[in-house]
Every structure is written in C-alpha cells, then in structure tokens.
Design brief:
heterodimer; A: about 80 residues; alpha+beta; Translation Initiation Factor IF3; 4-stranded mixed beta sheet; 2 helices; about 30% helix; B: about 400 residues; mainly alpha; two-stranded antiparallel sheet; 16 helices
C-alpha cells in the first residue's frame, strides 16, 4: 500500500459518479484518499462505499462542501 | 440488592448479546465498524419502512379513487397534468394531479427543514430535457413509470414482468456507460430564487386547482383514467408525506438495481422490495389482487413492447441519475437540472398523446413503436457522446 494521499474533486457531480470515481481511485491502493463533494447524497454514498471497503472515514464540513478523509486502517 | 443488580446485568447481557459479544472480542477499528454497521442498519430500516408506506399509501389512493394499480405513477400523472393544462387534447387523460404538487412541495419543505435545500444546476440541462422526454415516451409505451411497474407487479399484472425485464436491461446498458466514464458534467451553484421556481409554480398550480378549476381541462368522471382520482386533499397529503420521506431517504426505483449491480450496495433495493411486498399485501387485503396477463387495468399484453418501453425508460433514467420520482424530489431540493427533466417528462407526456405515441389497453401504436426506436437511438447517442467524446480538462 502506498503511503500517499490522493486528492479527488467530485464537486458538482451527482451520484453515482462520485462513488464510481472513488472506486476507480481506490484501485491504486493509497493509504489515504481525500475527496471533496458538495451535496449530502454524495457524502453519504461515498462514505458508505469507503466504509464497506474497510476505510475509516472522517467528514469535515466547509461552507456547504464536505471534505471526506478516508484512511485504510492498518490491519 | 447485589443480587438484583446482578440479575439486571445478566438480563441486559442476554438482551444485547450480539452487541456484548462484539464488545468482548475486539480491536478499536472493529468497534468503530460496529457503530457504522448500526447506522447503516438504521438506514435500511428507514428505507424499508418508507418503501412499505409507499406501497400502503398507493393502494389506499386506489381505494379512494385513483386508477387501478396507479396509486402513484409519475409519468402518467405528469401526462394527466399536461392534459389539464391543455398541452394535449386527449380528453380521457386530463387532471391536475395533486400528488405531483405534493411530492415536489413535500421534498421542498423537508429539504428546507433539514438545511439540504441547495439551488444547483447547469449540468447539461438540454440533454436532460431530451432524456426526460424519451423516458416519458418509454413509460407511456409500457403504461407506467418504474414506480407503477412495481405497483402493477404487486397487483398481479404479469405484463409488468416484461417491463421489469426491459427495465433491468436498460439499467445494465446505462451502467455500461457509467463504468466507461459517462457524465453529464458538473452542476454549479445557482441563486436561491432560481432553485425555488418549480416549487413556486407548483404552489400556483395548487391555487389554480383549488380556486379556479374551471380554467383547467378535466376528464369527466367515468370517461377515462383522468376521471378516476382520489379526493384532492387526500392526494395532496399523500404526495406531501411521501415527498418529504422520499427526500429524507433518497428513495429511487433505478438506484436500487443500479447500485446493487455497481457496488453490491442493496440498501436502496430494499426500498424497491418493500414497496412490492407491502403493495402486494395491501392488494390482497383490499381484494385488488388479480393475477394474470389479460384484462389487467390500464395495460396491454404486447410483451416485446412492454419490455422495450421500459428498456428505454431504465436506460434514460440511469443517464439522468434517477427515476421520474427521484427527479421530482430533486427538483424540490432546488436542483434546476431535475426541474428541467420534469419539464421534459411533461413535454414527452404531451407529445405522446398529441401524436398517438402512447399505448392503450388495445396495445401499442405503430407511431409509438417508431418513437421508442428513435428514443433508444437518441439515448444511445447521448450516452456515447457523453462517454467517449474527449473532455476538456478543467
């Protein structure tokens, strides 16, 4: 697993596009992904997907946008 | 005293054994995963509950006067609305359906209350209009939107099985393009008033319906499906309640199958199943259950065209990001692209009746078949252009 942070911008995209985006990105097996989304539906769907893939997700809200930080727990 | 406390402890341990068992095993991340599982469990209960309610309310609406197996049908109701506004002249299908007004306003108020109202738009609105238009054509070939397809199945209408097969095929076509990078591009923030235009139009339509119904075109009682409707207040309340709950749960007929295929995520599929089961049980209780293929209410028996109609609808809905119901809900949340899609559905409904494209109990029309084939070609073209034509960066 690479020890880098991959950043993704999914603002303005509607579901399921952000989830497809994170699914493609997760193939590269980074330790951490950071994704910005701008609607609650994308926030929920991306969070759910990342959790199912075994990532820990934290969400920060900034002026109507959400920054999701997804980190693979070291197992 | 000590014994009492001890007994209580044992009692609770037994009651919450699955939880206690987890606590006994574990690492921190497992525990966290446990809480996450609980929250997704809650979500599943919620969506199944709302799905069940949609089934119950739909059968109740039929009980109160809506056409058979049509507690809700977004495509049919928008078509009736188009008729009421004089956009088509087919006298049998004209009524300003309060359910549509209720769904949009229910979603609008729920979104405002949850601080989720956000005016957004600009993601290929004209393309969405065209997609909405052809989704309506596909639905009216089959005689029902995806929601009515489920309600028809729950009423015993075997023809809807063809529809379901076509619908799933259509969704699979859409998923192929999604997996290859299909996108209608990003939306952008719009001004607050821009997001409220469609909800305000709905309020005005409601005022018109209550105060000056003589200005609108209504099917006379007994002269067609437009003449069958539940009392205004019941229809409106049903729309408002389900609109609010659909906003809360993001209920969508397309997302269930789509997300299951794409991500093995079956939460939304649970809503789909819950509507089917609860409407089926309610139909049994109300003696509406009537299994078979022939003589089904407001449907025809041409399997191929039932399937192709829903294939067009399913394909188009995946490209739009949601079924007609979801488009109404999103338009209530301030999504102007979805509002344009709703106008596309409305225009499609009007065209379908102005040019004899809609099926009837007698079967599909030749013009309708041609329109569905053209629709499939156009939707394919839209999918290809928005998937394979290189995009500019930025």
């Amino acid at each position: 697993m690479k020890n880098t942070i991959k950043q993704l911008d999914a603002r303005g995209l509607s579901c399921p596009e952000p989830v497809i985006m994170i699914r493609k990105a997760m193939m590269s097996q980074e330790k951490t992904y950071e994704m910005v989304v701008d609607n609650p539906v994308s926030r929920e769907n991306v969070t759910r997907y990342a959790q199912h893939q075994g990532y820990l997700v934290t969400v920060k809200e900034q002026e109507g946008e959400y920054v999701l930080t997804m980190t693979k727990s070291a197992l | 005293m000590d014994l009492k406390i001890r007994t209580c402890e044992v009692f609770f341990k037994v009651l919450y054994w699955p939880y206690v068992k987890n606590r006994l095993q574990v690492t921190e991340s497992d525990e966290l995963r446990g809480t996450l599982m609980t929250s997704s469990k809650k979500e599943r209960f919620l969506i199944a509950g709302v799905g069940a309610l949609v089934g119950i309310v739909s059968v109740l609406l039929v009980f109160f006067g809506n056409p058979a197996n049509m507690g809700f049908c977004i495509a049919c109701f928008l078509r009736d609305t188009a008729g009421a506004l004089g956009l088509h002249q087919t006298a049998a299908v004209q009524y300003l359906r309060p359910e549509i007004i209720g769904l949009i306003l229910g979603s609008f108020f729920m979104a405002l209350g949850r601080k989720e109202f956000a005016a957004r738009g600009g993601s290929s609105p004209m393309t969405r209009f065209v997609l909405g238009f052809f989704v309506a054509i596909g639905c009216l070939m089959f005689l029902g939107c995806p929601l009515r397809m489920v309600l028809r199945l729950a009423g015993g209408d075997g023809n809807a099985l063809w529809g379901l097969a076509g619908f799933v095929m259509g969704i699979l076509c859409g998923i192929f393009f999604l997996n290859h990078g299909y996108s209608l591009k990003r939306t952008y923030k719009q001004s607050f008033p821009e997001g409220t235009v469609l909800p305000i139009i709905e309020v005005l339509l409601l005022v018109l319906l209550v105060t000056a119904p003589a200005l609108l075109h209504f099917t006379e009682a007994g002269a067609g499906p437009g003449g069958n409707h539940a009392p205004l207040l019941i229809s409106l309340c049903a729309g408002l309640i389900l609109g609010a709950l659909a906003q809360r749960t993001r209920l969508c007929m397309v997302a269930g199958i789509r997300d299951f295929v794409l991500f093995r995520e079956w939460t939304m599929l649970l809503g789909f199943a819950a509507i089917l089961v609860s409407a089926f049980v309610c139909n049994l209780l109300a003696s509406f259950w009537n299994p078979g293929f022939t003589g089904q209410p407001l449907s025809h028996t041409d399997g191929l065209w039932n399937a192709l109609g829903m294939l067009l609808a399913g394909f188009g809905c995946v490209l739009l990001g949601g079924c007609p119901l979801r488009q109404l809900i999103l338009s209530g949340e301030g999504n102007t692209d979805s509002a344009v899609t709703v106008l596309g559905l409305l225009a499609g409904g009007a065209f379908a009746h102005n040019f004899g494209l809609a099926s009837s109990a007698g079967g599909p029309t030749t013009a309708g078949k041609a329109a569905v084939v053209i629709g499939l070609a156009v939707v394919c073209l839209i999918a290809c252009v928005n998937t394979f034509v290189p995009k500019k960066q930025g």
